[in-house]
Write a structure and sequence with these properties.
heterodimer, A: 116 residues, mainly beta, 7-stranded mixed β-sheet, 1 helix, B: 113 residues, 5-stranded antiparallel β-sheet, 11 strands, globular
Chain lengths: 116, 113
């Protein structure tokens, strides 16, 4: 069973540009969450999608957006990149809407974004 | 808003000894808690969880303790092995917020042979 796949794994952008990251969840998983990991800040919740609907959103500016397609694949977009956006962006999928039942997220290896 | 806090960025223990990783939370609505382990260049992987109706959950060498009154949980690893060296994230979720999961900043555990 394939795991969560994220592309690209590494990318370098310059300030002001925009970037799109892609995530393919585990087959059958309908929930996809996105997290930003930076040193000292841990995993910061960006947003979560379930059945093409954004159910929850973290405290990030509107430059960060996402969407989910009918096949559960998800993309996140960051516009007008800033130096502080350099981070590892992790996608996670889950089988069930009920966290307490499913109990866990399955993470991809992440997309490491460097903004110069 | 850092609702889940891991105040120790790093911990070093000797192989065979106990590792204790701590986590505090501020949101009393959290009712499910998890620990994830992360190796370099890999995504976090689920380790162990505990529901708020329990105060202890064991899985082999790993035990998680929950103290709801103190809003504190801890992960015990006994005995610690060099392969346990990784970054450990504490996470919490609440059914009142669509169950989105909040993570701490992580603790880097180093187990020395």
């Amino acid at each position: 069973k394939a795991g969560v796949t994220q592309t690209p794994r590494y990318l370098i952008k310059t300030r002001g540009q925009q970037v799109t990251l892609s995530c393919s969840p585990i087959s059958g998983h309908r929930s996809v969450s996105w997290y930003q990991q930076t040193p000292g800040q841990g995993l910061q919740f960006l947003f979560e999608y379930f059945s093409e609907t954004q159910r929850n959103k973290g405290n990030f500016p509107g430059r960060f957006s996402g969407r989910q397609f009918s096949n559960s694949r998800s993309e996140m977009n960051v516009s007008t990149l800033e130096l502080g956006d350099s981070a590892l962006y992790l996608c996670a999928s889950s089988l069930s809407r009920e966290w307490a039942v499913a109990g866990e997220l399955f993470f991809g290896e992440g997309s490491r974004l460097t903004v110069l | 808003d850092q609702q889940v806090k891991q105040n120790s960025p790093s911990l070093s223990v000797q192989e065979g000894r106990i590792s204790i990783l701590n986590c505090d939370y501020t949101n009393s609505m959290f009712d499910y808690f998890l620990w994830y382990k992360k190796y370099p260049a890999e995504g976090p992987t689920f380790l162990i969880s505990i529901s708020s109706i329990k105060d202890k959950n064991e899985d082999g060498r790993f035990t998680v303790f929950l103290n709801k009154s103190a809003k504190h949980l801890s992960l015990h690893i006994v005995p610690s092995q060099p392969g346990d060296s990784a970054v450990y994230f504490c996470a919490a979720s609440s059914p009142y917020n669509n169950n989105d999961m909040r993570f701490g900043a992580g603790t880097r555990l180093t187990v020395k042979p």
